[in-house]
Amino acid sequence: MKYTTHIIKNMFLNFFKNHKHKIIKSSSLIPQEDSNLLFTNAGMNQFQNVFLGKIQYPFSQVVSIQKCLRTGGKHNDLNQVGYSPYHNTFFEMLGNFSFGSYFKKEAILYAWKLLTHQNWFNIPKEKLLVTVYYKDQESYNIWKDIIKLSKENIIQVKDKNNQKYESDNFWQMNETGPCGPCTEIFFKKKECKIYDLNNKKQCIEIWNIVFIQFNKINKNNLVPLKTASVDTGMGLERIASVLQNVHSNYKIDSMIKIKNYICKMHKLDAIKNNISINIITDHIRAAVCIIGDQILPSNDNRGYILRKIIRRALLHGNKLGIKKIFFYKLVSITIKSLKDFKEQLQQKKIYIENILKQEELQFIKTLKKGLALLRCYIKKLKNNQLDSKIIFSLYDTIGFPIDLTKNICYENNIQVNEKEIKNIILEHKKNQKNKNNNCKSIHTIHTNIKSKFTGYKNYKIITIVKKIFVNNEECQKISKNQYGIIITAKTPFFAESGGQIGDTGIIYNQKSFFKVNNTQNFINSIGHIGQLQSGMIQIHDIVTTKINLKKRILIKKNHTATHLLQASLQEELQYNIEQKGSFINEKYLRFDFSYPNIINIESIFNIENKINKKIQNNLIIQNKCCTFENAKNHGYKFLKNKYYPTNVRILTISNFSKEICKGTHVNRTGEIGIFKIISCKNISFGIKRIEAKTGTYAFKQIYEKYQIIENIQNTLHTDQNTIIPKIKKLQKNFLYLQKQNNILNQKIILVEKKKFMKKMINIKNIHFLFLQVEIQDSKLLKNIIDHIKKEITSGIIILFYKKNNKYIFIASITLNIKKIITAIQIINIIKKNINGYGGGKEELAECAGKYIHNIKNIIKNIQSQIISKIS
Ligand code: SER
Q: What is the DSSP string of 604-665?
């Protein structure tokens, strides 16, 4: 095959490399920390802050092949997957980007050349048509005058419903963030006079070229960016379907292997079952890659999406009649088909398989549990309609699929209110969205002011206001109660970076007072983000900037402790751990790192010990500046995926710790006081997270634990030396008593059995026992019933006892009489008459209720029912 996906990818990268683009690796499916996306949904995500002008990137022309997932937010293809041959949740996006370098003309020329030139993709020019945003005359002219497309092949696309920028040709990353007009290239699948762009039988979109010119701050507010950029995206699977001439993403080389495997494994007809097989094929790729990027199935955020995808695939498996667990068995073929990620995923294969297997087993349990609950609800129904809230809560609490509930209801002639369910789901989604949107709003301001950071040594300085922004717009002043960003010539405020949170504090002069809630970097400017509480601050005002020193001191302790932790981990684990992230605030520190083995309690203790020793040694923390290369060559630790400037600050703690770091630190380790690890856990494949506290917070942690131990000692009347032997003794005693109890129970069973049997009556050759008993233990009573049943052929046993003002009934039958009456029927009769609740099965059922004055009549009623049925 000439154009395999692998070849297409290489050609794409080479084409742009030849045109002076730097090849950048795909980022993770999990977006960078300050993104408000759940999953990476486009190639441009990793450059979001570059487009917004927040960071300067070392290259102005780059090319990448990005793993993407479109399962929510502005770009959600989940519901189309399987039904549409051209939609996937997980896909790879080929993209070239210009950050203020080339613009519309070059971007269009590049795309056209790659698609149509005989040395490249060689698509006949007449097979392509393009769309442009109706206001983008420049792009229109380029297509018409430079590319020489006829007017019929350039379609101008308007806004939908007259809503400004709500157009297929105005691309937006999310509800907020970078956006701009775009021009799209379509492949014509057949000749038509006029093309319906949404009709995938006529044409499909293959390449989107976006001209990023705005930052969307909120629904109605688009702020022009200082530098216009280019972001292009071409779905690998779609272009492969064109170049391989197969008319479906699911038939391209990488996907067809998985499809064929599923068909072969379960002897399925590929055409008849096309949709379900497509869905499973798509979802296994997504699940493998999401888990590969360290997300586990769970009930919220990303884990929830993963769970949803897995469960959807499992339900389709169920629909296809696949009886055994199957999904995890597709991991191997999926990894093979994802050729370029193979190496990375292969290492995690068993891990991914295990997770999927567990999830599938758990889902089977959920289905069983859901079915049992649903049956209960159905039995309790007073009318013929199941409450929508119950349907939703089955889904929300245990994950029982709504469609399945609906199907079961329909099969049982029970009505459901589809509209009401839809509304409840919508309401829930809205709440979820609000929760998810709880991420930081993006502050984008453009300024070339270089703020001088003085906060390593000064905590309060007098300086001049250089810029003011309100609602991200540059202003001359900020007035009382307004929120905004103030930039000063100098500042002691540390802007959030390297895991350390931004400083808080105040900016003031005689007439005004601005409360700083956070501090962030905006390229070279340090932005104080907060609210003006009184007066008014104007550009050029002289102000005092003062940080919250108490908080900063606590942060410093935690930051230095993080360095000590990294060095101690390295030493104790004897492994080249790699930092994967950190978070440092005034209360605690968090450090994520790669380490594949278990960290036992002894190691944790050793690490704590090492750090506390370094604290007691009161070592000096030295810092100086040097070039990045120099630091690297001298073994200073740095983050592999981070961009560092030519000159960096290096931090040395004796000969123990060496790191490149801009953060704020204590002068000597003794200032940390004390260090205590509070947790160490696996957060994903091969990644561990340690959380720890220092100083007063650590002391408080230790003290609280100590108090708990004191409490236990007092309760058990023991002391520190004997507490463990005492607990062990109690455990031993408990086991002994349990054993004794079992022996006694066996004896009781035999005695009680005899007593009960004597009280049995005979109704038409059926042993019938109805009895109030002293024993208040359902388990034991059921045991006695089992023993009785072994000695009779046909029988009905109804026992009840009183406990805590309630009467508990247990009914049981020998199964040979189930046509006459079942245990659940008996319990239903009792339940109705005593206004109780309960349930069970044919052979055994129970219920409870408070009022039993009518009980004799009820039993008579049951007896006569039996008699009438037999006669
Ligand atoms: N960001 C645009 C898209 O995803 C182009 O890459 O379509």
A: HHHHHHHHHHHHHTTPBEEEEEEEHHHHHHTT-B--TTS---SEEEEEEETTTEEEE--S--
Give φ, ψ of 84 to 5 degrees.
Answer: -100, 135
Spell 364-398 as b/e; 16+ CB within 10 A means b: eebbeebeebbeebeeeeeeeebebebbbebbeee
Nearest CA to ligand 1 atom 2: 233
pLDDT value for 123: 97
Which atom belonging to ligand 1 lies closest to the Cα atom of 43? 6
CATH number, position 784: 3.10.310.40
Closest CA to 757 of 714, 781, 792, 711: 792
Structure tokens at 487: 């930039």
Quote the distance between the C-alpha of residue 422 and its chain's center: 24
Cβ(657)–Cβ(672) under 8 Å? no
Residue minimizing CA distance to atom 4 of ligand 1 = 42
Ligand 1 in reach of 171 Cβ (< 6 A): yes
Range of the domain at 747: 741-870
Residue type, 838: G
Residue type, 402: I
Provide the CATH number for the domain around residue 171: 3.30.930.10
Atom 3 of ligand 1 has which residue's CA nearest to it? 233
Whether 540 is in a domain gets the answer yes
51 lines ligand 1 (CB under 6 A): no
Please, are residues 599 and 688 in contact by the beta-carbon 8 Å criterion?
yes
How many domains does one find in the chain? 6
Nearest residue to 748 (alpha-carbon basis) of 771, 702, 780: 780
Instruction: Determine the distance separating the centroid of ligand 1 and the alpha carbon of 78, expressed in angstroms.
Output: 17
Atom number of ligand 1 nearest to Cα 44: 1
* 8 Å CB contact between 581 and 594: no
- Ligand 1, residue 68: give the atom nearest the CA: 4
What does pLDDT average to in each consecutive run of 10 residues of the chain (871 residues)? 92 97 93 76 93 88 96 82 93 97 97 97 97 96 97 95 90 89 97 92 96 87 91 97 96 96 93 93 97 82 88 90 93 92 86 90 88 87 87 85 83 85 85 48 69 96 95 90 95 94 96 95 89 96 97 98 97 90 95 90 97 98 95 91 84 96 97 97 82 96 94 93 95 96 93 94 93 93 95 95 92 94 92 86 92 88 87 76
Mutate to test the pocket of ligand 1, among 39, 93, 230 (most ligand atoms within 8 A of CB): 93
Last residue of a domain, one of 496, 516, 547: 547
- Cα(821)–Cα(843) distance, rounded to whole angstroms? 10
Are the C-beta atoms of 222 and 472 separated by less than 8 Å?
no
- Residue 612 identity: N
Q: What sections of 546-600 are H helices per DSSP? A: 549-573
| Any ligand 1 atom below 6 A from CB of 42 | yes
- Ligand 1 center to residue 209 CA distance, Å? 7
What is the whole-number distance in angstroms between the Cα of residue 343 and the centre of ligand 1? 27
Phi first, then psi: what are they for 55, rounded to 5°? -130, 150
Ligand 1, closest atom to CA 41?
4
Q: Copy the structure tokens of residue 289.
A: 């890659």
Instruction: Decide whether any atom of ligand 1 lies within 6 Å of the 455 Cβ.
Output: no
99 alpha carbon – ligand 1 mean position (Å)? 15
Q: Is the CB of 231 under 6 A from ligand 1?
A: yes
Please, are residues 492 and 544 in contact by the beta-carbon 8 Å criterion? Answer: no
210 Cβ closer than 6 Å to some ligand 1 atom:
yes
Place of tokens 């041959």: 85
Boundary-marking domain end, from 521, 547, 573: 547
565: Cβ below 6 Å to ligand 1? no
Q: How far does the centroid of ligand 1 lie from the alpha carbon of residue 445, in Å?
A: 24
DSSP alpha helix (H) spans, 41-184: 48-51, 104-116, 137-141
Indicate which atom in ligand 1 lies nearest the CA of residue 95.
Answer: 6
